[in-house]
Protein backbone atom coordinates (compact mmCIF):
# COMPACT_ATOMS: atom_id res chain seq x y z
CA UNK A 1 0.00 0.00 0.00
CA UNK A 2 1.00 3.56 -0.54
CA UNK A 3 1.08 4.59 3.14
CA UNK A 4 3.13 1.60 4.30
CA UNK A 5 6.18 2.13 2.17
CA UNK A 6 8.18 3.99 4.87
CA UNK A 7 7.49 1.39 7.53
CA UNK A 8 8.67 -1.40 5.25
CA UNK A 9 11.86 0.52 4.62
CA UNK A 10 12.48 0.91 8.36
CA UNK A 11 11.98 -2.80 8.92
CA UNK A 12 14.30 -3.66 6.05
CA UNK A 13 17.16 -1.40 7.29
CA UNK A 14 16.77 -1.19 11.09
CA UNK A 15 20.43 -0.30 11.77
CA UNK A 16 20.75 2.66 9.39
CA UNK A 17 20.73 5.17 12.25
CA UNK A 18 23.39 3.19 14.09
CA UNK A 19 25.65 3.17 11.04
CA UNK A 20 25.33 6.95 10.74
CA UNK A 21 26.15 7.37 14.42
CA UNK A 22 29.25 5.19 14.18
CA UNK A 23 30.38 7.05 11.07
CA UNK A 24 29.98 10.35 12.96
CA UNK A 25 32.04 9.01 15.86
CA UNK A 26 34.80 7.95 13.47
CA UNK A 27 34.78 11.38 11.86
CA UNK A 28 35.01 13.09 15.27
CA UNK A 29 37.97 10.91 16.20
CA UNK A 30 39.76 11.73 12.95
CA UNK A 31 39.10 15.46 13.33
CA UNK A 32 40.41 15.45 16.89
CA UNK A 33 43.56 13.61 15.82
CA UNK A 34 44.03 16.06 12.95
CA UNK A 35 43.73 19.02 15.33
CA UNK A 36 46.56 17.54 17.39
CA UNK A 37 48.86 17.64 14.35
CA UNK A 38 48.35 21.34 13.61
CA UNK A 39 51.17 23.78 14.28
CA UNK A 40 50.91 26.45 16.96
CA UNK A 41 50.57 29.12 14.27
CA UNK A 42 47.69 27.25 12.61
CA UNK A 43 45.96 26.83 15.97
CA UNK A 44 46.40 30.54 16.67
CA UNK A 45 44.76 31.30 13.31
CA UNK A 46 41.63 29.40 14.31
CA UNK A 47 41.61 30.76 17.86
CA UNK A 48 42.75 27.67 19.74
CA UNK A 49 45.79 26.75 21.81
CA UNK A 50 47.51 23.53 22.85
CA UNK A 51 45.48 23.29 26.07
CA UNK A 52 42.23 23.43 24.08
CA UNK A 53 43.48 20.69 21.76
CA UNK A 54 44.67 18.51 24.65
CA UNK A 55 41.25 18.79 26.26
CA UNK A 56 39.49 17.99 22.97
CA UNK A 57 41.64 14.97 22.11
CA UNK A 58 41.00 13.43 25.55
CA UNK A 59 37.21 13.53 25.13
CA UNK A 60 35.35 10.27 24.62
CA UNK A 61 34.43 9.42 21.05
CA UNK A 62 30.70 9.65 21.80
CA UNK A 63 30.97 13.22 23.12
CA UNK A 64 29.71 15.13 20.11
CA UNK A 65 29.65 18.90 20.64
CA UNK A 66 27.03 19.32 17.90
CA UNK A 67 24.53 16.94 19.55
CA UNK A 68 22.98 18.42 22.63
UniProtKB/TrEMBL annotation:
InterPro entries: YjiS-like. It holds the Pfam family YjiS-like. Residues 18-53 form the YjiS-like domain. This is YjiS-like domain-containing protein.
Amino acid sequence: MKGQRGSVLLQKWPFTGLFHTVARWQMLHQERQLLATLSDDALKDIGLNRADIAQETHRHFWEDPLRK
